[in-house]
Amino acid sequence: MKPKLLIWGCLFWGSFLGLFAQAEIPEVQYDQGHIIGTLPYGRHFFIVGNARLDENAMARKVQVDIWQTGRQKVLGMRKIRNKSYTQEELKVIMSNPNFKIASSSWDAGKARDPQNFRLYINKPLQFRTQYLLKFTFFERVELDEEARQDVVDAIRLKTFETFEREGILAASGVRQIILNEVDLALNGLYAETEAVQSGQGNSLEQRKLSQAEIAQKLGLTEEFLQNAEKAFSTMSAQQKRIELNQKSLAQFQEELAEVEEAEEKAFIKEEIAEFEASINASRLKIAEQEDRLNGLFNLLKVRLKVVYTTLTLTDSDELTVTELQTINIGSTFGAGLVVLDPQGERDARAYTSIALKFYFMPVDKRIAEPYLANWPLLNRLSFTVGIATGRSIEYKGTELEKITGVYPLAGLGVDLNRYFSLNAGVMIFNQPSVSPLNESSRLRMAPTISLDFDMDLFNRVSTLVSGNKYKIPPAGSGQ
Question: What confidence score (pLDDT) does residue 199 get?
Answer without folding.
Answer: 52
